[in-house]
Design a protein that fits this description.
homodimer; 239 residues; mainly alpha; Arc Repressor Mutant, subunit A; Tetracycline Repressor, domain 2; 2 domains; 10 helices; 63% helix; 0% strand; flat; DNA-binding
DNA sequence: CCGTCGATGCGAACACTGTACGCACAGCGG
DNA sequence: CCGCTGTGCGTACAGTGTTCGCATCGACGG
């Protein structure tokens, strides 16, 4: 209702400028974009819908944001700001790494669109939150006396991103189905078993465990791989 | 020229049906789609452009493919077919795993759009090529006597996908710039060093090595992380 | 040989998309 | 009071994925 359409530019029919919220700002736009992405997924975000949500005209957003891609970069950096990392002077590097990995995974699952964007654009964003994220990790791994901290970090991050991406895609599919995760698994089980017929080493029996408590199964899977990577990294430490 | 537009439906102005190539088929569509994706990137693929390339009308494709998303699934499975895995009875599981990882990485870099699609959709495709890909890996890891082969595989794949995704995104950015990778690195170096000012542990000096031979540097980075993961996995083997 | 039928191609149309352009207007310094 | 700068936004353009209905085809049955 903010968009007053005056076909006749009459001076009389003019509202005296109700303040109506702090109007528009880059921060408000990014905040609302993240909310929309979380709620409706990456395909549902359009500049027009976002503007409507902000009680603004469609093209007004372009006064604060150059392009939709730039808006996505800002959204990515915004959610990177949510990741709270362990303090830089943690004595136990391994516990700190676990904490960091879990923190990343948690936000990646809270914002499943993040993985899509990272897949398309990579981590070449250089936003402030992403920078301090990297900085903290670098401090952690150099303090742990890794001979090649950058490579160790990239190894860890690759695993975490890869696994989180798969999980996020899965959760997106679950959300689209409208069912709970357990219902979704139960419904897909026959199709999955049917698909593995004729494949010798692909057994669907592990999905039986997944049907009971899917979230816990995913947690365990992530932790398993994480310990594997950390074990491998620990071997690189000077003894 | 195939689209003869006859505003007047005259019987006389009719070409006698030149055979003009095997016409349309699902296989031909998918093949051309992959070619377009490779050549122009994921954003440049539209149903209309693809149809034009095939000398077909825009909506004719929908006779062979239900939707664009389905077409992308088919394209993904198509490129998965390119991955040639080591024989199932390889005696050295570790060498075979390295070979498989490198094969995946190679195709992921040859088709940089693959990572974008995987990020959006995950590996929930169940296409035949993807199935036999998983099957071969499962055979490899069960033969190696891993107690939990599925988890070991997912750990390895997560790392490989994560690292390949980052590389593919990087290569896409390079391609968009129109420069060679070395030129691109050289041009971005000042900006990168500028960005790390004020961050204690982020040093841009490692980029110096990357400027000389970027591809070799990426190869080494990938191998480093791969060995880390395999070391960690080896610890899970019964001794 | 002709009529029918299912499969295939496709032009037109619909509902959207991201974004460029230019106008309207607010607040403000001179 | 004038003009300027920054902000909102209506209009418009070129493009998107996809639906609908019509035209045309090869094959097949009578």
């Amino acid at each position: 209702m903010a968009a007053r359409t005056n076909p006749v530019p009459s001076v009389w029919a003019r509202q005296p400028r109700e303040p109506e919220q702090p109007s528009l700002s880059r921060a408000a736009i990014v905040r609302e974009a993240v909310a929309m992405l979380d709620a409706e997924g990456i395909d549902a975000l359009s500049m027009r819908k976002l503007a409507t949500r902000l009680n603004a005209g469609a093209t007004s957003l372009y006064r604060h944001v150059a392009t939709k891609d730039e808006l996505m970069e800002l959204a990515v950096d915004q959610v990177f700001g949510e990741i709270i990392l362990p303090p830089a002077d943690s004595p136990d590097w391994r516990a700190a790494a676990v904490e960091a990995a879990q923190a990343f995974r948690a936000t990646a699952l809270r914002h499943p669109w993040l993985s899509s964007v990272l897949g398309q654009a990579g981590l070449v964003y250089l936003g402030p939150n992403l920078m301090s994220f990297s900085e903290r990790l670098a401090g952690l791994f150099t303090a742990a006396a890794f001979p090649e901290p950058a490579r160790a970090i990239e190894t860890l991050i690759s695993y975490v991103v890869g696994m989180s991406t798969a999980e996020a895609a899965w959760l997106t599919a679950v959300a689209r189905s409208g069912e709970s995760e357990a219902e979704f698994v139960a419904r897909l089980m026959p199709a999955a078993e049917q698909a593995t017929v004729g494949y010798e080493h692909l057994n669907g029996d592990s999905t039986a465990a997944a049907a009971e408590d899917p979230a816990a199964t995913r947690d365990a899977k992530f932790s398993y791989g994480l310990e594997v990577v950390l074990d491998g990294l620990a071997l690189r430490l000077p003894r």
